[in-house]
Amino acid sequence: MNIILFGAPGAGKGTQAKRLVESRGLVQLSTGDMLRAAIEAGTELGRQAKDIMDRGDLVSDDIILGMIAERMDSPECANGVILDGFPRTVAQADGLGAMFEARGLTLNHVIEVQVDEAALFARIETRAAETGGSRADDNAETLRKRLAVYHENTAPLLPYYDGKGLLRTVDGMASIDEVGQAIDAILAS
Ligand code: AMP
């Protein structure tokens, strides 16, 4: 089963993706995590991505699609993947579609975790406090930028997938367990 989890930054996609990894044996492919790992490892890609991420801008579609294609081809992904934080642009969604078609894979569900944006600021502040500010992009100023980027580049993917009959929405303001149950109900349908 292959799933896309959508949602504005701080909506709880990562938390729900990790739940699905445990309950369903799917592999979480988070482009944000991959980029942070590249920065940590000090690679050329990490060096290029760091400033872009700190500003809250998007890393180029080519780089992102290359990273995903490489991971999709690893055997661990054969059981299915949860795409978290990807695709973020129409070009990435088109690239993903082509990648799936070439590999004979099916995109089963696209789930939007919908949240109230005022609440996102509170969540991001909590995350910044809990992680000791280890993510340079976890602050109100960058969040405003990331939300603007989300609305401009990523929100158009909602009608894109709705048009394909794949989009379902869950209330991300509910508790983690309730959001998880709502997602489970969609996956069972
Ligand atoms: P995330 O952890 O998903 O919130 O991603 C953190 C940052 O990594 C984003 O603000 C972007 O700068 C970059 N990033 C992550 N995924 C993508 C993507 N699919 N396309 C472009 N940039 C991305």
Structure, briefly:
The protein is of the alpha/beta class and 189 residues long. It is 58% helix and 12% strand.
Molecular structure report:
The protein is an alpha/beta fold. Helices cover 58% and strands 12% of the residues. It has helices at residues 13-24, 31-41, 44-55, 61-72, 90-103, 117-130, 140-154, 157-162, 176-188; strands spanning 3-6, 27-30, 81-84, 109-114, 167-171. The chain has a five-stranded parallel β-sheet with strand order 2-3-1-4-5, with helices on both faces. The structure holds adenosine monophosphate. Residues 9, 31-32, 35, 52-53, 56-59, 64, 85-86, 88, 92, 137, 146 line the site of adenosine monophosphate.
Number of strands: 5
Strand content: 5-15%
Which oligomerization state do the chains in this entry correspond to?
Answer: single chain
Residue windows where pLDDT falls under 50 for at least 5 positions: none
**Rg computed from alpha carbons, rounded to a whole number of angstroms:** 16 Å
CATH class: Alpha Beta
CATH fold assignment: Rossmann fold
- Order of strands across the biggest sheet? 2-3-1-4-5
Q: Please count the helical segments.
A: 9
* Total count of domains: 1
List bound small molecules: adenosine monophosphate
The appropriate CATH architecture is: 3-Layer(aba) Sandwich
Q: What percent of the residues sit in helical stretches (DSSP H or I)?
A: 55-70%
* Gross geometry: globular
Q: What are the secondary-structure elements, in order, as H or E?
A: EHEHHHEHEHHHEH
Mean pLDDT: 92
By helix and strand content, what is the structural category? alpha/beta
Q: Can you say what the CATH homologous superfamily is?
A: P-loop containing nucleotide triphosphate hydrolases
